[in-house]
Amino acid sequence: MEPPQESAAGGRKRRRRGGGRNRRKPSSSSQQAPPPAAAPPPPSSPPAKRRRKDGTGQAVATPKRGNTSSLLDKMRARLSGGHFRMLNEKLYTCSGQDAFDYFKNDPNLFDVYHTGYREQMSHWPEQPVNVIINWLKSHNASWTIADFGCGNAAVAKNVENKVFSIDLVSDDPSVIACDMAHTPLEPFSVDVAIFCLSLMGTNYPSYLEEANRVLKPSGWLVIAEVRSRLDPNNGGADPEKFSKAITQLGFSLVSKDEKNKMFILFYFRKKEKSKVAKSIDWPQLKPCLYKRR
Ligand code: SAH
């Protein structure tokens, strides 16, 4: 299943004044959902019922008396949904270093991003991070974990293990704020490296190289990615090619969990005597972009 369709996001379709005869049936493309983002589109605000043109020629909502505050809330939600989508797109289309510089300059953006992210993820039937947390709980509590692109550090908050939570920026002092291509972790220091929907940057292979650097021999590499990014029928990468590139980095694929509708989970283990291939053919992971209208 693809994420819910954004056409539900009200207020996007323009109404023609006078409607009636001239009202065009929306074409299927104008109602098409954007390609899935890291998460389904934000909940929609219903279209404003009545519209008029103001002096600037922009359509403005004309709230009914008594409805003002709820309408303002909806407009705010739409604005922050738009801001979230812009940040999401930024993260998928720039390098980790650029993302780090961008978020470092305005740490508030991180809150905007994560408020939108949580909202959108609430529409997923299953959260990949919960699947990973359950997997960790059924394994060794003495393992040390590195959570690359930890977001709100849900892994650290829900397992007994020692967890290094890593993200671009955080107001949580336990989170290491850095570009995860270059962490301060020691070589061969962790048993599990997690990337839960976080292989976003255009230089994503360098994040996996960093995980390889910090993982102990036989350590686990657990990756959850948005299904559509790895769907070759829709412009996504071939999951086999993705796995193959990681095996060339020195890992073995132990299992692949494809039963979830929105994401695929890969469980790799670093080889005891891992050797990085001279040249690795990394497939491009399809960025989760929204269509411009
Ligand atoms: N893993 C969390 C959050 C996923 S959202 C969860 O599943 O809930 C993806 C996260 O990756 C975001 O918090 C984003 O800031 C982070 N991220 C993306 N690129 C990064 C980079 N280069 N370095 C560090 N964190 C990064």
TrEMBL record:
<dbReference type="InterPro" id="IPR029063">
    <property type="entry name" value="SAM-dependent_MTases_sf"/>
</dbReference>
<protein>
    <recommendedName>
        <fullName>Ribosomal RNA-processing protein 8</fullName>
        <ecNumber>2.1.1.-</ecNumber>
    </recommendedName>
</protein>
<dbReference type="GO" id="GO:0032259">
    <property type="term" value="P:methylation"/>
</dbReference>
<feature type="compositionally biased region" description="Basic residues">
    <location>
        <begin position="11"/>
        <end position="26"/>
    </location>
</feature>
<keyword id="KW-0804">Transcription</keyword>
<keyword id="KW-0489">Methyltransferase</keyword>
<feature type="compositionally biased region" description="Pro residues">
    <location>
        <begin position="33"/>
        <end position="46"/>
    </location>
</feature>
<keyword id="KW-0949">S-adenosyl-L-methionine</keyword>
<dbReference type="GO" id="GO:0006325">
    <property type="term" value="P:chromatin organization"/>
</dbReference>
<keyword id="KW-0808">Transferase</keyword>
<dbReference type="GO" id="GO:0005730">
    <property type="term" value="C:nucleolus"/>
</dbReference>
<dbReference type="InterPro" id="IPR007823">
    <property type="entry name" value="RRP8"/>
</dbReference>
<keyword id="KW-0698">rRNA processing</keyword>
<feature type="region of interest" description="Disordered">
    <location>
        <begin position="1"/>
        <end position="72"/>
    </location>
</feature>
<keyword id="KW-0539">Nucleus</keyword>
<dbReference type="GO" id="GO:0006364">
    <property type="term" value="P:rRNA processing"/>
</dbReference>
<comment type="function">
    <text>Probable methyltransferase required to silence rDNA.</text>
</comment>
<keyword id="KW-0678">Repressor</keyword>
<keyword id="KW-0805">Transcription regulation</keyword>
<dbReference type="GO" id="GO:0008168">
    <property type="term" value="F:methyltransferase activity"/>
</dbReference>
<dbReference type="Pfam" id="PF05148">
    <property type="entry name" value="Methyltransf_8"/>
</dbReference>
<keyword id="KW-0156">Chromatin regulator</keyword>
<dbReference type="InterPro" id="IPR042036">
    <property type="entry name" value="RRP8_N"/>
</dbReference>
<comment type="similarity">
    <text>Belongs to the methyltransferase superfamily. RRP8 family.</text>
</comment>
